[in-house]
């Protein structure tokens, strides 16, 4: 079959406290993360938001040891997956491409070229698809392909999302059962699925299948678990002023407390590794909110990390995709997932005169807003809640 490469995609996280601000800049500079209708405003705004958010974010990373464990865990996953794949394929290497921090996706592609990979399987480490996660990484790769003619010879296939995979579901059910069984009456414990949120407009306007895939995923996990527990799904980690998917995790915790629920296990469901939102947000912030709401027994299901059944599911996904018709980036985002990526797809119709005039006017306004913000530390952006 020739030399096979597997490219694992993930978000990336700051390795140290100094990395936090530039990491946040990269994140907010991505139009799939903050959808600003004026591309020229993206970078100044990213600079502003990352500068303003850095301290709080650093405090959070400090609480989990001064950086994100994501790189180490992803490297461990890649290593175990590579060993498993080497039992099935002659020449195979696994690479890591992070979206906002080292090792960057661009670096991974450079290594893939250097190693002479002939067939590449692109596998996001997000079980469910969202414009803001896998979609953003696919968009970046599509651009890399467009700008580098030498990549034409590299055959690739994309795995869009894979939360239905039986071994992934078994791994999740196994971890949940393990946590439930620590309680005296395991069947009475509330199972609290906490998914990472996205702004409501992603789903309602841009057609992001994320919410549907999350709901479907929780249903499949519960079927696989096959226990009678009560359960709930809520969305965590909201940032900024706009409405996100509901119910919000903190509100759902308070409501459960009011209903007299005292025992829960929280299941992080949109991410396969431990990271700041499990170790800090769930284990520290949400635990405190739950405690105050009267939920005194708070368990948290560990992330999959290198769970053997999880690695097995990744291995099977890779092998299956090598034997199927290759899928291209554009096919996956526009045809299969049918999402509107942003802002490129709204701006492709070009700059009409009116749009240009408005661009000019808004540029002036934007800069005034930024200036005000910088001078007073409390300008209009703060007012609308973006900072
Ligand atoms: C499937 C998972 C994720 C979705 C969907 C997602 C959307 C999304 N995130 C932000 C803003 C931030 N995310 C941040 C960190 C972060 N996000 C995810 C996952 C998803 N994000 C992870 C795993 C991490 C942490 C990585 C790590 O360091 O361990 C951050 C930075 C941290 C902080 O300051 O809180 C921000 C900001 C938006 C706006 C968004 C959807 C549009
Ligand atoms: Fe995020
Ligand atoms: Fe967060």
UniProtKB/TrEMBL annotation:
<dbReference type="InterPro" id="IPR033659">
    <property type="entry name" value="Ferrochelatase_N"/>
</dbReference>
<dbReference type="InterPro" id="IPR019772">
    <property type="entry name" value="Ferrochelatase_AS"/>
</dbReference>
<dbReference type="InterPro" id="IPR033644">
    <property type="entry name" value="Ferrochelatase_C"/>
</dbReference>
<comment type="similarity">
    <text>Belongs to the ferrochelatase family.</text>
</comment>
<comment type="pathway">
    <text>Porphyrin-containing compound metabolism; protoheme biosynthesis; protoheme from protoporphyrin-IX: step 1/1.</text>
</comment>
<dbReference type="InterPro" id="IPR001015">
    <property type="entry name" value="Ferrochelatase"/>
</dbReference>
<keyword id="KW-0627">Porphyrin biosynthesis</keyword>
<comment type="function">
    <text>Catalyzes the ferrous insertion into protoporphyrin IX.</text>
</comment>
<keyword id="KW-0479">Metal-binding</keyword>
<protein>
    <recommendedName>
        <fullName>Ferrochelatase</fullName>
        <ecNumber>4.98.1.1</ecNumber>
    </recommendedName>
</protein>
<dbReference type="Pfam" id="PF00762">
    <property type="entry name" value="Ferrochelatase"/>
</dbReference>
<keyword id="KW-0408">Iron</keyword>
<keyword id="KW-0963">Cytoplasm</keyword>
<keyword id="KW-0350">Heme biosynthesis</keyword>
<keyword id="KW-0456">Lyase</keyword>
<feature type="binding site">
    <location>
        <position position="196"/>
    </location>
    <ligand>
        <name>Fe(2+)</name>
    </ligand>
</feature>
<feature type="binding site">
    <location>
        <position position="277"/>
    </location>
    <ligand>
        <name>Fe(2+)</name>
    </ligand>
</feature>
């Amino acid at each position: 079959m020739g030399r096979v490469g597997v490219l694992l995609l993930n978000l990336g996280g700051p390795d140290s406290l100094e990395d936090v601000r530039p990491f946040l800049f990269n994140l907010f500079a991505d139009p799939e993360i903050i959808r600003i209708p004026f591309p020229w405003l993206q970078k100044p705004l990213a600079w502003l938001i990352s500068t303003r958010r850095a301290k709080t974010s650093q405090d959070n990373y400090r609480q989990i040891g001064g950086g994100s464990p994501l790189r180490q865990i992803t490297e461990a996953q890649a290593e175990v997956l590579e060993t498993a794949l080497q039992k099935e394929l002659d020449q195979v290497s696994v690479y890591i491409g992070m979206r906002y921090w080292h090792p960057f996706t661009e670096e991974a592609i450079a290594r893939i070229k250097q190693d002479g990979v002939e067939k590449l399987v692109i596998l996001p480490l997000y079980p469910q698809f969202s414009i803001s996660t896998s979609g953003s990484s696919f968009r970046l790769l599509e651009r890399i392909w467009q700008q580098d003619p030498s990549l034409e010879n590299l055959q690739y296939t994309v795995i869009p999302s894979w939360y239905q995979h039986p071994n992934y579901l078994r791994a999740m059910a196994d971890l949940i059962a393990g946590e439930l069984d620590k309680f005296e009456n395991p069947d009475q414990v509330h199972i609290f699925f906490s998914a990472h949120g996205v702004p409501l407009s992603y789903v309602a306007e841009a057609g992001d299948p994320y919410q549907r895939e999350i709901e479907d995923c929780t249903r499949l996990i519960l079927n696989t678990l096959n226990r009678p527990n009560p359960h709930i799904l809520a969305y965590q980690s909201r940032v900024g002023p706009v409405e996100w998917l509901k119910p919000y995790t903190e509100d759902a915790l308070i409501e459960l407390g009011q209903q007299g629920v005292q025992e829960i296990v929280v299941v992080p469901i949109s991410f396969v590794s431990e990271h700041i939102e499990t170790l800090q947000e769930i284990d520290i912030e949400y635990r405190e909110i739950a405690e105050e709401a009267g939920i005194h027994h708070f368990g948290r299901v560990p992330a999959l990390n290198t769970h053997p059944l999880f690695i097995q599911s990744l291995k099977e996904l890779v092998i299956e995709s090598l034997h199927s018709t290759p899928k291209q980036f554009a096919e996956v985002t526009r045809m299969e997932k049918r999402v509107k990526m942003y802002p490129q797809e709204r701006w492709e119709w070009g700059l009409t005169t009116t749009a240009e005039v408005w661009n000019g006017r808004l540029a002036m306004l934007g800069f005034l807003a930024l200036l005000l913000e910088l001078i007073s530390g409390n300008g209009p952006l703060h007012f609308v809640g973006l900072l």
